[in-house]
Amino acid sequence: MEPSMNYNILRRRDFAEGLQDESLQIRIREDLTRDGWTLLRGFQPGMEDFSSLVSSLCSRVTFDPARSNTTDKTQMVDAGLGPIGLHIENGNTPRCPDIVCFYAERAAFEGSQTTICDGFAVWDSFDAARQSRWSQQMTVERDLPELIWKRYLANEHPAISRPEEVTMDHVLQFGQAVPGQAFDLHEDGSLTYRLTVDPVRGSVFGEGQRGFANAVLGPSHNYQPPRYTMADGSPVTPEEIEEIRAIAETSTHEINWQDGDIAILDNTRVMHGRRAIADANRNLFIGMGTI
Ligand SMILES: [Fe+2]
User: How many whole angstroms from 264 Cα to the centroid of ligand 1?
Assistant: First the structure.
């Protein structure tokens, strides 16, 4: 039987200089360009090594677990114990990273596999009608409580750092800096936020090939579930999402983590998720950025 996907494992024994090996950097880029993902095994990295690797791949690191001021809890990928649907990281935010890296410091005994799904393969599985529908732009709409959106903006806006400092001017400036956004501010301080994205898009590593890469199948923990509307005005229904989830599952693979593994994903092409966690003793860290 023809294998449906290459199993990319870059092993320590093949790279004399370990994570510093120049040929490793080349192999990572080759794997990302060909398959959208790769796995580094046996390098026995520490958090600083993981952080340096993320920096070597990204010209701008948007989340660095080693240098983050946040608590240990939020550095770790930590969203309960249930399964998590496929998504690109921060796919419903205006600044979506190009590359996402995971570091399994302590792998699970069983369960909690990270799922990965190539958006090119999902797109190729769509029939003509579905391809035509998903070639439209899509608007994601969410109601955000005051504290949530102010905290986010305080982080993103260069002029301020605390939620209390946020004014409507900052909202408007941020709106202009990143296109595709719209806001309605309500009297109770909450905000209706709309972001227009291309749910099917080219990869930053690709040459025009398009893939289904978005967060429609993903989780919405911490937030009210978003409402998705296509450019023709039709809503994305729960039934449609379940149909696409079933299609995507047929191209989904699992990373069976070992201690010290690092996975690198093209976040503009490959979606990821998680099977249910059986061994709560595992931990997994995330780093991401723009190439
Ligand atoms: Fe994620």
Answer: 12
Ligand 1 centre distance from Cα of residue 119 (Å): 15
CA of 272 to the centre of ligand 1 (A): 6
Q: Name the architecture of domain 9-121+248-290.
A: 4-Layer Sandwich (3.60)
Ligand 1 centroid from CA 100, angstroms = 9
Measured in Å, residue 89 CA sits from the centre of ligand 1 at 5
- What separation in Å is there between the alpha carbon of 228 and the centre of ligand 1? 19
Determine the pLDDT at residue 64.
73
**What is the whole-number distance in angstroms between the Cα of residue 129 and the centre of ligand 1?**
29
So where are the chain's domains?
A: 9-121+248-290, 128-211+220-235
**Tens digit of each residue's pLDDT (9 = 90 or more) over 115-151:** 999 999 999 999 999 999 999 999 999 898 898 888 8
Could you say which residues of the chain have pLDDT below 50?
1-3, 70-75
pLDDT of residue 203: 96
Query: Both tokens of residue 14?
Result: 């093949």
Q: Which residues contact residue 129 at a Cβ distance below 8 angstroms, ignoring those fewer than 6 apart?
A: none
Q: How far is the CA of 205 from the centre of ligand 1 (A)?
A: 20
pLDDT at 194: 93
Amino acid at the residue 76:
M
| pLDDT of 1 | 43
Centre of ligand 1 to C-alpha 248, Å, is 16
- pLDDT in the model for residue 138: 97
DSSP string, 31-87: HHHHHSEEEEES----HHHHHHHHHHH-SEEEE-TTT--S-HHHHB----SS-EEEE
Close Cβ partners of 32 (under 8 Å, ≥ 6 residues apart): 38, 99, 205, 264, 266
